Structures are given as C-alpha cells and as structure tokens.
Description:
Layout: E1 2-3, H1 14-30, E2 36-39, E3 57-61, H2 74-87, E4 92-96, E5 100-105
Parallel strand pairs: 1-2
Antiparallel strand pairs: 2-3, 3-5, 4-5
Helix pairs in contact: 1-2
Amino acid sequence: MKLKSSVALMGLKPETMVAWMAAYHIITHVHEAPMVVTSVCDSKHGVPFSSHYDGRAFDIRIKDPVSGRWIIPVEEQEEVVEEMRAALTSDFYIQLESDHIHVQFKVRYRP
C-alpha cells in the first residue's frame, strides 16, 4: 500500500479504518493491484462539509496521473466497488469516480 505524500491521517475515524482494511484486502489480495490512497483528512474537496475533513472518507487511486495507466484495470473497477459494498454495511458509501474510488462512512444516529 502507498500513501500520496500529502495524505493526512490525523483524525481518521475507526469506522473508516474498517472500510480501509476491506479495500486493502479486495484490491491487493483479490485483484492483485497496489492500493494507493490519495486523500484522507486533507486536500480541497468539492463540498464545504466533505466527510474527508472529519476523517470519515478516503480516496483510492485507480489511474496513474503521470503515465495515464490504469492501476486497477477498467474491466475490474466496478467489480472492486461491488465487492467492497458487499464486504461492508449500508453505513458506507462507495463511489467509482473517473480517477479514484471514494469511500465514506455515513453518520447515522441510532436510538
């Protein structure tokens, strides 16, 4: 596993780590691809209240920005996302984006 040099881990929630471990297993062991985390509690995100800012989200690179090569082959990307969804509960939101997989823990308050 690799972390982009700008990744900030301070504040990462334990619930988010559950998804991180599932993603790591699926990507590295099942699909035999490297897992590259590009954003956790850092960077600018498209919405002011992004789940990244409070440690509930992380992004996994699927395409190398320099070479343009796919880290996770195109034909396997949707399968990786579906396997992650199957491994986790509905408390997690997993979205395939153009160059990364966004993984987020959704806050739900239960009585």
